[in-house]
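Hi R.,

Here's the chain you asked about this morning:
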Amino acid sequence: MMKKYILILLSVLCCIGCDREDETVDITVMPPATTIGAETFGCLIDGWLYVGGRYRDYGYWFGPSVDSPSIKFLYNEKQAEVDVSVMVKQDRYIRFTIVSPQEGQESEFTNARFGEEKLKNGTVTITRFDTERNIISGTFSGGRITNGRFDVHYKDQEEDLM
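And the predicted structure, written out as tokens:
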């Protein structure tokens, strides 16, 4: 019986020690526009600044908690699109799909959502799309979203499914 209590106590202490915030990410400042894979994301929605990278996204895989990045860009080469999911507040995401991304070109983003709220489609200008280093960088806007920028390493969809 004592072993159960010790196990429960250790589990609780472990969970308390998990910090869901990376306080080195300043959510009051738009990240700089870079093309080096700096793992940054920021945009304005209705004039309010939303920055990715501060909060951690915890998922569960057969019980244990898995810490995963809060900025996720998943490239599907067959469909020629990038699915974007960025945690900008605890339990609040910005999501959209970049259609046919090509370096130096303007693309459309579709299926935009802010939390559960559907947003208008917009455009993305891809400033870097490096398939060898898996880096995608660009700027975006549309509807209520303005001054958006990102510079991240993306994952290939096949790689993410394994």
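Confidence is low (pLDDT under 50) at residues 12-19, 58-67.

Let me know if you need anything else.
M.
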